[in-house]
Amino acid sequence: MFTSAFTINYSPTLIKSTRRITTITQRWSSGNHDDDIGSSLSSSSSSSATSIRFLGRGEDATIRPGVVLVAPSHEYNHFLLKSAVFIYAMGFNQYEEFVTRGVIIDHPTAFTIGEMTGGSVSGKLASNVLFQGGDAGNDTVMLLHCHGDSDSGIHCGEMIGNSGIYQGGLLDAMKLVDEGRLNEEGFKFFFNHVEFSEKELEVMLTGVDSDGDAWASMEVPSSVLLNNDFQRGDAWSFLRNQMKQQMDH
């Protein structure tokens, strides 16, 4: 159940891992399974297909900040069913457990970010759809965008991996969008996130069905990651289709 008592973290925090992985994240408190694309993807997503890169499947999948994990057809977890998960952080949580965190990029809610934050997000950005990032996160909201370069005017963290995606900078974003200097379509809001322990990730990646289907990792353009028009399973269908095409060649 959604509430309006969301916490929005305005500034990203640097998290370091002993595995030499450094990324930007918020504060740690913060049917039918065919692969037919058949969904109404934006033209930007379709035209970005040539920039999509398959990085491996199952135990061979590359896991690092900036990649997208694409669920197999046999995944039946409520949140992970037909999901595409953008990995934005790997590091230690408050219990000194090494975890991997991500947001599901194609699970929209029925609400806008403005409706669910009690005025914390205003102006043009308030009309952006709020996406359900996962089932963990203590009712926090995260902002991802593609405007982290020094000329954009948004003060935020470093790029997440080589994804072209940045986190934070909400106050600057609202101001620049309202002034017409940036387009609201380059920003995407997520409620909560998913979190995997090392053991959970290992179990996920070793779960291969009789057809060889398993969790896969991919590099995906920012235009796909930030698509605000996705309905549930759209990105999953699109990326599964692209993965099949690359594996067939």
Structure description:
This protein is 18% helix and 28% strand. The protein is α+β, with helices and mostly antiparallel strands. The strands form 2 sheets. Strands 1, 4, 5, 6, 7, 8, 9, 10, 11, 12 and 13 form an 11-stranded mixed beta sheet that branches. Strands 2-3 form a two-stranded antiparallel sheet. The longest helix is centred in the C-terminal third of the chain and has 15 residues, at 234-248. The protein is globular. The model is unreliable at 1-48 (pLDDT under 50).
Helix content: 10-25%
Mean pLDDT: 81
Task: Specify the number of helices.
Answer: 6
Order of helices and strands: EEEHEEEEEHEEEHEHEHH
How far apart lie the N and C ends? 44 Å
The low-confidence runs, each spanning 5 or more residues with pLDDT under 50, are: 1-48
Largest sheet: 11 strands, mixed
Beta-strand residue percentage: 25-35%
Structural class: alpha+beta
Number of strands: 13
Quick description:
This protein is an alpha+beta fold and 249 residues long. The chain has helices at residues 43-47, 113-116, 170-178, 198-206, 222-225, 234-248, and strands at 7-8, 13-16, 22-25, 53-57, 68-70, 84-92, 98-104, 108-112, 129-132, 136-145, 166-167, 187-197, 216-219.
What are the SSEs and their pairings?
Blueprint: E1 7-8, E2 13-16, E3 22-25, H1 43-47, E4 53-57, E5 68-70, E6 84-92, E7 98-104, E8 108-112, H2 113-116, E9 129-132, E10 136-145, E11 166-167, H3 170-178, E12 187-197, H4 198-206, E13 216-219, H5 222-225, H6 234-248
Parallel strand pairs: 1-10, 9-12
Antiparallel strand pairs: 2-3, 4-13, 5-6, 5-13, 6-7, 7-12, 8-9, 10-11, 10-12
